[in-house]
Design brief:
The protein has 7 helices and 2 strands, in the order αααααββαα. The chain is mostly helical. The chain has a two-stranded antiparallel ribbon. Strand 1 and strand 2 form a beta hairpin. The radius of gyration is 27 Å and the shape is elongated.
Length: 228
């Protein structure tokens, strides 16, 4: 929020000072920044509505960083990176998902992690488990950090299958959950963005109009006087 507030103050500084001091350069900078943001929002609106009407386009465009997130699963707890661990945990809690795959059983992606995989050579206490951020938590219920234990197991062919405590966790992969959420809320998000764009367009037109008026007035000041 602090970063967002600082960006807003930085942008509005050019608009306020440009209008107050009648500075054409500041107003032009303000207009360009608003224009850049405006076209970015337009692109976002187009993507949202494309996702809503053409759900399969998500896979074709490949804009979801599934590969990078899957690599983060492999490094989870292995590398000393608390920021990455917190990011993955927050994603899984917020979207109520598990793993970063685009599948209904995304939790199986945790088998790629050396601590959570189900191999016989893995002597870790977390073997065949997932992090507690995958667990289903009811409102007001205390978090049990061991709730993700033994949710995976291997079948006779060596394939990963549901373990005895699978009902404790969210099974869907986070990339799929995110895509589902966008598709479900596409109309609402598009409406909100359109509501933001309309006053933004008005402000852009007003700043452009003020800039042109200042230029016209200054041109009158610089006009040579005629002597009779």
């Amino acid at each position: 929020m602090t970063t967002g507030g600082a960006i807003v103050v930085f942008i509005t500084f050019f608009g306020c000072m440009g209008a107050l001091r009648e500075n054409v350069c500041f107003l032009k900078t303000y207009n360009y920044i608003l224009g850049f943001i405006f076209f970015g929002e337009m692109a976002l609106i187009i993507l949202i509505f494309v996702f809503y009407y053409v759900p399969e386009s998500r896979d074709k465009l490949g804009i979801f960083p599934e590969k990078s997130l899957s690599e983060a699963i492999v490094k989870y707890g292995v590398e000393d990176d608390d920021d990455m661990v917190n990011l993955i945990d927050n994603i899984q809690k917020t979207l109520q998902c598990c793993g970063m795959d685009n599948t209904d059983d995304g939790y199986r992606g945790w088998a790629k992690n050396i601590y959570y995989n189900c191999s016989e050579s893995n002597n870790s206490p977390e073997a065949c488990s997932v992090p507690h951020s995958c667990c289903k938590i009811k409102p007001g219920e205390e978090i049990n950090i061991l709730c993700g234990r033994k949710v995976m197991q291997y079948d006779e062919n060596g394939n990963i299958m549901d373990g005895p405590y699978i009902s404790r966790i969210n099974k869907e992969g986070c990339v799929k959950s995110l895509g589902t959420w966008i598709q479900t809320n596409a109309m609402v998000l598009g409406g909100i963005l359109l509501g933001i764009l309309l006053p933004q367009m008005f402000v852009m037109c007003m700043s452009r109009s003020l800039r042109d008026q200042i230029k016209i007035q200054k041109s009158k000041w610089n006009r040579p006087k005629r002597y009779h």
